[in-house]
Design goal:
3-stranded mixed beta sheet; 454 residues; single chain; alpha/beta; 17 helices; L-arginine/glycine Amidinotransferase, Chain A
């Protein structure tokens, strides 16, 4: 057996979930994200949010799935406020921002990096010509609070995937509307086994140059075709390995701001809503033409689940995971039980259908859901061989000891409640820096935050 064949046999998908940061709050920052906008101004619980995320990670780890963790960003980002003209000591900067530009203060306190599906786009080594896994952090230029993330994200990814023999890192795309990139939330890799070569489905909302102008009218399209094409070039993917598909404009206008809110893929299975793609048939035909393993499309018709129900429940923002026997488990948020049509679809259409989905597991991630992020938003999927897993830097693969340490860390550093009015409290900034300094020690990452390199 060749080395490449052995690597394909021991490859597995690792879900790297984002730890919810200490400034988790409901500021309603994300235009086009219905849940985020509708919950703006409510009181959040950072501690509950972080523990809910960790509980999901632990349960999946205990079920046999490979699970990793990614740290949150440094928030509040006082450096960003200083760059925007606020001066004095930290307390003065926060007070000025709260009085003069509260929307900026809310933005620099966002804990949105928990949704690591937006951290970047990943190509596994089995698909790359140079035999390395490739990473491009997303520029997230469509919203200011997320535009602040890529620099730290790049340092974190470089610290974890550090060995240049196994991992390649690419620069963030230019932060302009033409190359608007939201990461893996608009990217799905379809294949047979995870260690086999795959086809990369890039979904975009609009074209920056050319196109026919058919775009959403109510909410912005966050991913461009040009950004997806640039990432494919960076990662060395050829035409036979990629499919580009436009997201349905009606779905975006209904609040489907990313493709992972309306479709999820795993292995050869593509679970999607009837209105996921502007040209459904052309998308399926292109995937069938390029995949070595037969595509298994699982279509949910509009008559069964409306766009409103899909957005409210985040049915498609679920994790679809492969089991040792080839069956699949769908991990859904608790909100799926609260919508009768969605729950009926899960029982009567998916579980009873002719497809590998054999189990539905419900997880409580309400603190994240109220800000518009479900189970799939919370994780970045990285296919790694055994050798690549052994080459990871830091202590980021979840085991019982790390879980216990992270729970204790949350219990020590996080507040039980946080309102938007609390964001100007200078003690919150001090608490957050102490928490992150402790976290980098626990995760053994070294200095990845601006305050650690000052």
């Amino acid at each position: 057996m060749s080395g490449a064949d052995q690597a394909s046999l021991d490859a597995c998908e690792v879900n790297f979930d984002g730890l919810v940061g200490p400034t988790h709050n409901y500021s309603g920052l994300a235009h086009g994200n219905v849940a985020s906008m509708s919950h703006g101004g409510l009181v959040s619980s950072p501690k509950e949010a972080a523990l809910q995320g960790l509980a999901k990670m632990k349960s999946l780890k205990d079920a046999g799935y490979a699970q990793g963790v990614l740290p949150p960003q440094q928030r509040p980002d006082i450096g960003a406020l200083r760059a925007l003209g606020f001066g004095g000591d930290n307390a003065s900067v926060l007070a000025q921002a709260a009085e003069q530009a509260p929307q900026l203060l809310r933005a620099v306190c966002s804990a949105s990096s928990m949704w690591t599906a937006n951290a970047g786009t990943v190509t596994p080594s089995v698909d790359a010509a140079d035999g390395r896994a490739h990473f491009t952090p997303a520029n997230l230029q469509s919203s200011f609070h997320r535009f602040l993330e890529p620099e730290t994200t790049g340092r974190v990814l470089a610290a974890i995937f550090a060995d240049p023999a196994h991992f390649a890192h690419h620069p963030v795309l230019p932060a302009t509307p033409a190359f608007s990139d939201e990461g893996a939330a608009n990217h799905t890799r379809l294949c047979g086994e995870h260690g086999e070569p795959g086809v990369h489905l890039f979904v975009y909302g609009r074209q920056a140059f050319g196109g026919d102008g058919i775009e959403p009218q109510r909410f912005p399209a966050r991913q461009t075709l040009e950004a997806s094409q640039a990432i494919a070039r960076q990662h060395g993917l050829n035409d036979a390995q990629v499919v580009y598909a436009q997201q349905h404009p009606d779905a975006i206008d209904a609040g489907v701001f990313h493709n992972d809110v309306i479709a999820v893929g795993n292995g050869p299975v593509l679970l999607y809503h009837e209105l996921a793609f502007r040209d459904e048939q052309a998308t399926l035909d292109a995937l069938r033409d390029k995949m070595a393993t037969p595509l298994i499309p699982v279509r949910v018709p509009l008559a069964a689940v409306s766009l409103e129900d899909a957005v409210a429940s985040y049915l498609f923002n679920s994790q679809l995971l492969t089991n040792p026997d080839g069956s699949m488990t769908l991990v859904v948020p608790g909100e799926c039980q609260e919508r009768e049509a969605v729950w009926r679809c899960l029982q009567d259409h998916l579980l009873a259908g002719n497809n590998p989905i054999a189990e539905v597991v419900v997880k409580d991630v309400k603190q994240s859901m109220r800000n518009g992020g479900g189970p799939a938003c919370l994780r970045l999927r990285v296919v790694l061989s055994r050798v690549e897993r052994e080459a990871l830097g830091g202590r980021v693969l979840l085991d019982d000891a790390l879980y216990a340490d992270l729970v204790a860390w949350v219990e020590c550093h996080y507040r039980d409640s946080l309102s938007p009015e609390d964001l100007s409290d200078p003690r919150l900034a001090e608490e957050t820096l102490a928490a992150l300094d402790d976290l980098t020690r626990i995760l053994e990452l070294g200095p990845v935050y601006p305050f650690q390199m000052a």
